[in-house]
Specification:
Number of strands: 5
Largest sheet: 3 strands, antiparallel
Mean pLDDT: 86
Structural class: mainly alpha
Low-confidence stretches: none
Number of helices: 15
Order of helices and strands: HHHHHEEEEHHHHEHHHHHH
Length: 354
């Protein structure tokens, strides 16, 4: 009972942090004290927080190293952007169109996670990381050579050029190879981003506290022992991996609908993006959902807040990242943190009461 109450208290605190941050940002924004740079970062902050929380489900809770998260994000982004651009004149209510796009992006990314997971999850460790990395690169490169158009006869697909689509005069090019998708509706906003983040937290936190979550963590802790007591290893690994992919797709939908032009550039959906998301998870703590969310926000804001330092900002960012890793996860840093917490008079009072 104590553990359940403690988990519920921790989950409530996580939701509360998100809601409080949203209220504070809205107050600052409505009073005119927020810069245009910060306003432009609000939706990306939600995107990266969702990505960090969803990847932590695979890396922290399941215990498998995946480097293909940007690929699932790419699937969600492009499938939803194609839908929104095709339905721009048919569904005129932006919120309804966005919610339908989220549903499509989540389903497509989840199905891709399922299809990739069937052969890939037979591997472990470095081998799994390499294969998932390859998947992400394949998705990005396929979209970069893809031409997609639509007219009264339906969809037309080619990997040659636009002319080979043979579109009618009133036809529309949706994906134009490396130029991506242009003119897509920008339906996302900060409020919808926070709602998606809260839904992501609700799904992940409740999964962790469920029977399936305990089975997944038992696989992480000791695969042989879990299998010996009848836990279906493949089933629960597929469950965690596909849910993680689907949530990455939701982040991709939010990302795509924050831009009028969507391209599959390496900086958007490539190897570096997957590594960046993994850094959020590691710094926040493997299995620590709240920590990965906070790390995503802090590490996304930090380079922007250091822009006044010009050429030195990324150097300082790297130094701060190294120092944070040492202080948070090294034995000496953990001991220092425990000593600081021991000096807290409120903590001492709680121990005396117990």
């Amino acid at each position: 009972m104590k553990n359940t109450a403690k988990r519920m208290k921790g989950n409530t605190a996580t939701y509360g942090i998100v809601v409080l941050a949203y209220i504070l940002c809205e107050i600052v924004m409505r009073t005119g004290h927020m810069s245009s740079l910060m306003k432009g970062l609000l939706v990306p902050l939600c995107v990266y927080a969702i990505l960090a929380v969803s990847l932590n489900l695979t890396v922290g809770i399941l215990g498998e190293l995946s480097l293909g998260h940007a690929g699932f994000m790419c699937v969600g982004a492009f499938t939803s952007a194609v839908f929104s651009k095709c339905m721009a004149q048919t569904i005129t209510v932006p919120t309804v169109r966005f919610l339908l796009a989220v549903l499509i992006g989540v389903v497509c990314a989840g199905v891709c996670g399922l299809l990739v997971g069937i052969p890939v999850l037979r591997l472990r460790g470095d081998y799994l990381a390499i294969v998932t990395l390859a998947f992400g690169e394949i998705i990005k490169n396929v979209i970069n050579v893809l031409y997609l158009g639509v007219d009264s006869r339906g969809f037309h697909l080619s990997i040659k050029d636009v002319m080979s689509l043979n579109l009618e005069e009133d036809g529309m090019v949706i994906i134009n190879s490396a130029q991506g998708i242009t003119g897509a509706p920008t339906d996302s906003n900060f409020t919808l981003g926070v709602i998606l983040l809260l839904i992501t937290l609700f799904i992940v936190l409740n999964l962790i506290d469920s029977r399936a979550g305990r089975a997944i963590m038992s696989i992480r802790d000791n695969r042989i022992a879990a299998e010996s007591i009848g836990i279906d290893i493949t089933k629960y690994k597929m469950l965690a991996f596909s849910i993680s992919a689907a949530l990455a797709g939701a982040a991709g939908v939010l990302y795509a609908h924050n831009l009028s032009t969507l391209t599959a550039l390496p900086k958007n959906f490539g190897y570096n993006m997957s590594i960046t998301i993994l850094v959020f998870v590691v710094l926040g703590g493997l299995g620590n959902i709240r920590g990965s969310m906070i790390a995503a926000v802090v590490l996304t804001l930090l380079p922007e807040l250091l822009r006044f330092l010009s050429d030195y900002r990324m150097l300082i960012y790297a130094v701060v990242l190294i120092v944070a890793m040492i202080l948070v996860w090294s034995p000496g840093g953990i001991a220092l943190r425990e000593r600081i917490l021991a000096w807290n008079p409120l903590r001492k009072r709680e121990k005396e009461v117990q």
